[in-house]
Amino acid sequence: MPRATNSPASKARKKKVYKLAKGSFGKRKNVWTVAKNSVEKGLSHAYDGRKLKKRDFRVLWIQRINAATRMHGVSYSVFMAGLKKHNITLDRKALAEIAYTDMGAFKAIMDKVK
């Protein structure tokens, strides 16, 4: 009895990987083992990147808030403690946006915290 390989399914699997490897340089786009490794690594980097993106944005928001608070002579930690003390529940993303776009509104928040 001849060996069955289920060729249509394996071809479809390879086609999926080659589609993801499209645009790669050299053997990465058309040699099965190299393309498979490249795609796997790329997908794992993409997964990690989605996690790192959140961390990077939080750092950016803190830097923007810190810069704005120091312009008013207060440190970031003192400002955040003041917000908590006065029950102002704005997250860092919103505070950073206010500090970046509307200095008047941020000054009003600073006056409340001081």
Account of the protein in words:
- The chain has helices at 7-21, 32-71, 76-85, 92-101, 103-113.
- It has 114 residues and is an all-alpha fold.
- It has one domain (12-113): c-terminal domain of poly(a) binding protein (Orthogonal Bundle).
- Helix 2 crosses helix 4 (92-101).
- The mean pLDDT is 94.
Identify the notable features of this structure and list them briefly:
single chain; 114 residues; mainly alpha; c-terminal domain of poly(a) binding protein; 5 helices; 0% strand; rod-shaped
Element order: H for helix, E for strand: HHHHH
| CATH topology-level name | c-terminal domain of poly(a) binding protein
Cα shape: rod-shaped
Please report which band the strand proportion falls in: under 5%, 5-15%, 15-25%, 25-35%, 35-45% or over 45%: under 5%
Distance between the termini: 86 Å
Largest sheet geometry: none
The CATH architecture term is: Orthogonal Bundle
User: For this structure, what is the CATH homologous superfamily?
Assistant: Ribosomal protein L20, C-terminal domain
Count of DSSP H/I helices:
5
Structural domains: how many: 1
How many strand segments?
A: 0
Q: Mean pLDDT, rounded to whole units?
A: 94
Cα-based radius of gyration, to the nearest Å: 26 Å
Q: State the helical fraction.
A: over 70%
Low-confidence stretches: none
Helix-and-strand structural type: mainly alpha
What does the oligomeric state look like here? single chain
- CATH class reads Mainly Alpha
